[in-house]
Design goal:
alpha/beta, 7 helices, Rossmann fold, methylglyoxal synthase activity, two-stranded antiparallel ribbon, 158 residues, globular, MGS-like_dom_sf, single chain, five-stranded parallel sheet, lyase, Methylgl_synth
């Protein structure tokens, strides 16, 4: 297996924030988002199916919706993270309920860690994340150097 090198990328001042909540956590996310509305409205919001619809109704803010999590929405968000089209992930997941799409959830959390994006898994961490002075300014972070990775794989194939 090839060793992964890293490079630096810059998150923009206007972040693309993904918002996800399992069924038993949706009301918590909605209440949290109402409290954080003034911060969220300055950014681009993306959410999985029902969560996105509920956020749009409750906040009156535009929310781009993927499909529902169990139907592939978690994977759609994960793909956008890998494509560097999501800058922050707020994911209120339910640690008490088994999820039929648990492998998708684990893959989403893994890809967020791989691409080093800020991740909040509950209300407290989401409050800390959105209150950070880095939220509204460009911010450098370390990410995998995919170009270097491809070159290493090409060299190994030769």
């Amino acid at each position: 297996m090839s060793r992964i090198d890293f490079t630096t990328a810059t998150l923009p001042a206007r972040k693309r924030i993904a918002l996800i909540a399992h069924d038993h956590c949706k009301e918590h996310l909605l209440s949290w988002a109402e409290r954080q509305r003034s911060r969220l409205e300055r950014h681009e919001l993306i959410a999985t199916g029902t969560t996105g619809m509920l956020l749009n109704q409750r906040l009156g803010l535009p929310v781009e919706c993927t499909v529902s999590g169990p139907l592939g929405g978690d994977q759609q968000i994960g793909a956008r993270i890998a494509e560097r089209r999501i800058d922050l992930l707020v994911f209120f997941w339910d640690p008490f309920e088994p999820q039929p799409h648990d492998p998708d959830v684990k893959a989403l959390l893994r890809v967020a860690a791989v691409w080093n994006i800020p991740l909040a898994a509950n209300e407290s961490s989401a409050d800390y994340l959105l209150s950070s002075p880095l939220l509204d300014q460009p911010h450098a972070l370390r990410i995998p150097d995919y170009g270097s990775y491809l070159q290493g794989r090409q060299s190994a194939a030769d």
